[in-house]
Amino acid sequence: MQITMSVNDTEYSAEVEPRLLLIHFIRDNLGLTGSHWGCDTSNCGACVVWLDETPVKSCTVFAAMADGHRVRTVEGLERGGELDPVQQGFTECHGLQCGFCTPAMMMTARWLLDNNPDPSAGEIREALSGQICRCTGYENIVRSIRWAAEHEAADRAGAPGEFGDSVQEAAG
Amino acid sequence: MQVPAHFEYEKATSVEHCLALLAKFGPESRVLAGGHSLIPMMKLRLAQPETLIDINDLTELGYLRVSDGELRMGALTRHAELLSSPVAGEHFPILHDAERVIADPIVRNRGTIGGSLCQADPSEDLSAAFAAVRAIMVIQGGAGTRTVPAREFHLGPYETVVESDELLTEIRVPILPGSGSAYEKVERRAGDWPVGAAGAALWLDGDTITEVGIGLAAVGAAHFSAAEAEDALRGEPATDDSFTRAGQIAAEHCRPISDQRGPADYKRHLAAELTVRALRRARGRVRGGKG
Ligand SMILES: Cc1cc2nc3c(=O)[nH]c(=O)nc-3n(C[C@H](O)[C@H](O)[C@H](O)COP(=O)(O)OP(=O)(O)OC[C@H]3O[C@@H](n4cnc5c(N)ncnc54)[C@H](O)[C@@H]3O)c2cc1C
Ligand code: FES
Ligand code: FES
After folding, report:
1. Greater pLDDT, B148 or A163
2. Taking CB atoms and an 8 Å limit, are B110 and A17 in contact across chains?
3. Which domain holds residue B243?
4. Which of A79, B101, B106, B204 is buried most, with the most CB atoms less than 10 Å from its CB?
5. ipTM value of the model?
């Protein structure tokens, strides 16, 4: 069947078998190998990408189900040649060792911060609870995401925004 | 690599279109909702449908609202949407308790409440929660719409009353004043299926129990509920003694099996203990505590 989807803001069309999983479409058809494929049983979370606005385990989604939708992978995280603060946080805080879990952790972290800009360590752990890291013991992953949260907050406070400070405080 | 068997894929564009596709492709076709039970089963070739009818674009089935004194939820409501719905939490905290411990946040972004109920896994948390609050299932087919009480919805493990040419479209829960509800689950690790779980909904007049619902998951309870324990509670004072007795009755009537999540006698113990805890927490909520 013919499918068309936007991946990291680029349109892709392809002829695929309906049984092709989204993770394999992303990795094998598009060559975007940042998203990883681990357990194949929706447990490890290495395959997390965004489908429209939310992270999903792409080993448990058919590529056909993303037809007509938007997908975002770790390759689409940086903006305008700048690393996303989440990526910077992982660099600064040693948030990875082997790196297998990292792209998916960062996709979930970006989603978390978009919805909750100042998460507690507990909220971060809850958000990541469907994803397994075999190296770091999670501590530095939590630190990395806190680093991103704090730097984004500082950027928001420092940047002369469209609104006055009082509006920002009221909203925050 | 786990590869499902070959199938044909159809995208439904409306409920009517979905029903027409189900009629056209017959009993070998399956509805595809979140896919978080069906796709794993297809990977293991435990399911080999010839045609999948994808309902994920039916936004008309994704809603949560109160109307006619009922909380009404579209079948395609994602677990995450139920969990974040203030109106659901206000009337039925049991649903939030249960959702908080169903799978993990990423699975909850995709899995749907209708899919959970139709999967009919004996360990499905929502089946127990909806049995406790006596939900009503709305099923649509070519011949029209029918409603079925939650406790008559499941025919057995992995089997429901939904026919192969029908669609579960809505779940309704009657809102009756003076209620409190709660869900208690024991799991081996975060995000896992229950070893055992119990949900309770209580209606009190002063200290007297006027109505009660008890739901049980993963312990082999008939219709995911504990009818005998409910009978023993109606008209009784809402005391710990009454609750303990109800827990014992619930445990006596369930039929847990030993598996990788635990031995049968431990699950029976959980049925009793979690029933008591859920009832206590529900009582606290009737009386206005957040609990
Ligand atoms: C890692 C993991 C952990 C999990 N942990 C838990 C847990 O702790 N507790 C728990 O209760 N559940 C758990 N689940 C199960 C999860 O809740 C369900 O898999 C999921 O929500 C099922 O919904 P779905 O939308 O994905 O259904 P699907 O997989 O799409 O469908 C399941 C079945 O229902 C049918 N169906 C779906 N929607 C309809 C409809 N509207 N009308 C008629 N038939 C329909 C399908 O044809 C299929 O047979 C877990 C799942 C995973 C992957
Ligand atoms: S590969 Fe998808 S969750 Fe493990
Ligand atoms: S860094 Fe190795 S699995 Fe997380």
Report:
1. B148
2. no
3. 179-285
4. B106
5. 0.94
